[in-house]
Write a structure and sequence with these properties.
With 464 residues, the protein is α/β, with parallel strands linked by helices. It contains 17 helices and 15 strands. A seven-stranded mixed beta sheet has the order 4-10-9-8-7-5-6, sandwiched between helices. Strands 1-2-3-13 form a four-stranded mixed beta sheet. A hairpin with a 2-residue loop joins strand 11 and strand 12. Helix 6 runs parallel beside helix 14 and helix 16 packs across helix 17. The radius of gyration is 22 Å and the shape is globular. It binds pyridoxal-5'-phosphate. Pyridoxal-5'-phosphate binds next to helix 7.
């Protein structure tokens, strides 16, 4: 497949590079990005090629999205077939067979509750923000319908990320993305996440009594349980640097929620669809939430698709005579789009038939072992966190004292940029990098990832 290079595109537009890139916002700071713009032209398997023809190992599945590899034949074929049959069904009048099939499929695959099939009901949307937003709305409406109209507060965590829409952003705890948009929506409060490596309570696991979890009960008491609707957490947080909780943490949250009639929402936009070695991280941790949000990997990155699953016992509250019950008041034009749902069904088939959850576990162990070797070799990796094919490493100047490199040095950013130069995509931050390769990664590809990371860390170290 030949693709147009950046000079080709600019010359076809009869403009300059500066003007050509002047009319689009990307997620990066624009002036910074245009100095060295990364523009991808094509992808196949686990590799991208940019418009200059340079190849990149995709150690991030785009951004935890391309779960079954780029240009996956089964998914492409399902899309092609569906495009020719029905590419849009009227959302105000009902749905389409693909959406119903995918909802039923997800309900079968989603975790059990108290050892029994939970029977999940699904709302489809396009992106992660839309479904975490929907989860918050569902929690509030549920309490109104079931006799607790005063329950509206949502407890989120500092350093978390649930999305860019106003409620999902208000539930998030990422200072850098919140401050510019303040004031945010009312009714959201935040607690500290389980960052054991740097415990906010100055304690040490396992003698800490899991204060980060138990203190949430005190927060609820102080707020008044009659005002709290839900707690929303990513089972493994991403934006704080892959925050993997101790095994007791989520069961304690489940217990607190049960005690106070508070709904537990898992944001599995990243951790869902096989990434932690099971279809859902809820299964990896053995804790079932009331509402479960998935996105990213569900369509394998082909078309926008996300889903909010709620347990049948919650959904029942929305079935009722119209005079008393308007149903779940939430909707977007593209919800349950048949093309998106065709992709979702094909991705699930691919994962199940190729047993890619097991592959995520096996290759995750290989990746983890390799990262531990790099920690020994370079002496600047303080902590390695994550499960399956979702792993993060925190860089420190001194592992014995956990002293960080100076913020201005942005060591992790330097490693990430060097990895790009060396032909690999990963997620980077001043103090950490994260890896989220496709569930299809082979042992050889994990080794290639580790070799590029090893080289990139070494090159950055050589400059300081
Ligand atoms: C954990 C988590 N939740 C929600 C979102 C929001 O998803 P989207 O960007 O698709 O709206 C993201 C996006 O990165 C995420 O990582």
């Amino acid at each position: 497949m030949s693709t147009a290079t950046l000079p080709d595109l600019i010359s076809a537009a009869q403009t300059t590079e500066e003007q050509f890139l002047r009319h689009i916002f990307v997620r990066d700071q624009m002036a910074e990005w245009t100095k060295n713009p990364l523009i991808m032209a094509k992808a196949e398997g686990v590799y991208y090629w940019d418009v200059a023809g340079k190849r990149y190992l995709d150690a991030l599945s785009g951004i935890y999205v391309v779960s079954v590899g780029h240009a996956n034949r089964r998914v492409l074929e399902a899309l092609r077939k569906q495009l020719e049959t029905l590419h849009f069904s009227p959302p105000m009048h009902g749905t389409n067979p693909l959406a119903v099939q995918l909802a039923n499929r997800l309900s079968e695959l989603a975790p059990e509750y108290n050892g029994e099939q939970a029977g999940w009901t699904v709302k489809f949307q396009c992106g992660g923000s839309e479904v975490t937003e929907a989860a918050i709305k569902l929690a509030r409406q549920y309490h109104k319908l079931t006799g607790s109209p005063g329950k509206y507060k949502i407890i989120g965590r500092y350093q978390s990320w649930h999305g860019s829409t106003m409620a999902s952003l208000s539930a998030s705890g990422l200072k850098s993305r919140k401050t510019v948009n303040e004031p945010l929506a009312p009714g959201f409060l935040h607690v500290f996440p389980p960052t054991c490596y740097r415990c906010p309570f100055g304690k040490q696991y396992p003698d800490c009594g899991i204060t980060c979890a138990t203190i949430i009960n005190d927060v609820i008491d102080m707020e008044d349980p009659a005002t709290v609707a839900a707690i929303i957490v990513e089972p493994i947080g991403h934006t704080g640097g892959v925050i993997d909780p101790p095994e007791e943490y989520l069961p304690i949250l489940r217990d607190i929620c049960d005690r106070h009639n508070i709904l537990l929402i898992f944001d599995e936009i990243i951790t869902g669809i096989g990434r932690t070695g099971n279809m859902f991280a809820a299964q990896t941790f053995g804790v079932t939430p009331d509402i479960l949000c998935i996105g990213k990997g569900l369509s394998g990155g082909t078309v926008p698709l996300s889903a909010m699953l709620c347990r049948r016992s919650l959904a029942d509250a929305f079935w009722g005579p119209i005079a008393e019950n308007p149903g779940f008041v939430e909707g977007h034009t593209f919800e349950g789009n048949p093309i998106s749902c065709a992709a979702g069904l094909a991705v699930l088939d691919e994962i199940l038939e190729r047993d890619l959850c097991t592959n995520a576990r096996v290759q995750g162990q290989r990746l983890r072992a390799g990262l531990e070797r790099l920690a020994k070799k370079h002496g600047i990796i303080g902590d390695i966190r994550g499960k399956g094919l979702f792993q993060g490493i925190e860089f420190v100047k001194n592992p014995a004292t956990k002293e960080r490199f100076p913020q201005a040095m942005a060591f992790g950013v330097q490693v990430g940029r060097r990895a790009l130069q060396n032909g690999m995509l990963c997620r980077f931050d001043p103090h950490w990098i994260a890896l989220g390769p496709a569930l299809t990664f082979t042992a050889e590809q994990i080794d290639e990832l580790l070799a590029i990371l090893d080289r990139s860390i070494g090159e950055v170290l050589a400059t300081i």
